[in-house]
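User: Can you model how calcium ion sits in this protein?
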Amino acid sequence: MAPRKIIIDTDPGQDDAVAILLALASPEEIEVLGVTAVAGNVPLPLTERNARIVCELAGKTGTKVFAGCDAPLTRKLVTAEHVHGKTGLDGPQMADPTMPLQDQHAVEFIIDTLRAEQSGTVTLCPLGPLTNIASAFERAPDIVEKVQEIVLMGGAYFEVGNITPAAEFNIYVDPEAAKIVFASGVPIVVMPLDLTHKALTTRARVDAFRAMGTQVGDMVAAWTDFFERFDKEKYGSEGAPLHDPCVIAYLIRPELFSGRHINVEIETGSELTLGMTVADWWRVTDRPANAMFMGDMDAGGFFDLLAERLARL
Ligand code: BDR
Ligand code: CA
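Assistant: Here's the modeled complex, given as C-alpha cells:
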C-alpha cells in the first residue's frame, strides 16, 4: 500500500517533537508532505524554529516546514512555557537550525496541497491549537471535502482539563478554531487526555531511548526527562504523557487504540468552561456523531513501536 500522505500541524513542544520524529522514521506508512507550525506551546518564531530543529535531528532536511498563524482566530495567545520551558524544547542543548523555512504561509500551503492532491488522499494531523486548519477551511471551503481524515491531539472528557479545570490546552487556546474543525463534517479521530495520559513514560522506557546510543535516542530521553517533571508534580504520575505521538502511532498501528464514535461539541461561550470538549461518551443526546473519540490504548505496544522506529534515525 502507498504511504499515507499527511500534513503535520504542530507547536513543538517536546511531545510534538517525538511525534514528528516518529512520522519521519516511518516512510513505509507515512509520507510527510509538510510540517506547518502554529503558535501554541510557545510563540510562532519558536515553534517554526523547533520544527526545523526536529527535522534536522531526524536527518530529513528536505522536509518542508512552513510558519502559519501567530495568534488564535479571535483571542490572545496563551502559551505553556510552564510545561515545555522557555524555548518549547527545553532540556538538552540544541543549536539553531540551518535548514530553511519555506516562504509560503502554512495556511496557503494547506490549501494548495489539498487542491493539488487527489480528493480524499491527504490526512491532517494537528498537534497544537487548530488555528491553521480552521483558517484554511474558512479561506477555502472547497478543500474541506477533500480532506481524507483529521487525526488530532486535543480535548478530554473523563480527565477534564489540564490548562483550566474544564479544558485541554490545544482546544482552549483557540476554541473558535476547534469549533470550526469539529463542525466541518471531515471524519475526525481525537486523541484526548483520557487516552494520552495512558501513554506514560517510565524510567525503563526512557532508559530504552537512551540505550539506543544515537543522537535521537539521547535527545528524546533528555526531552522526556525535562517534560516529565511537570506531570510528575501535578498528577503524581511515574512519567510524562507522550500526547502528540499517539496521533502518528494511530496512523501506523490503529489497532493499538480504541474509542467511541460520538458527538463532540466545543464550548466557546462560557468563561468558566471555555474550550471544553463536550463529548457525548454515554450517547445521552441525539446529536450526530462527528468524531472517533479514543479512550484506551495498548501503551506497551505504543512504546515498542516508538523504540523500534526512533532507532532507525
Ligand atoms: C497538548 O498540549 C501541549 O502542551 C502538548 O504538546 C499537547 O499537544 C496536551 O494538552
Ligand atoms: Ca502539541
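A couple of observations from the model: Strands lie at 4-10, 30-37, 65-67, 122-126, 147-153, 188-191, 257-262, 264-266, 277-279, 291-297. Residues 191 and 246 are 7 Å apart (CA to CA).
User: Helpful, thanks.
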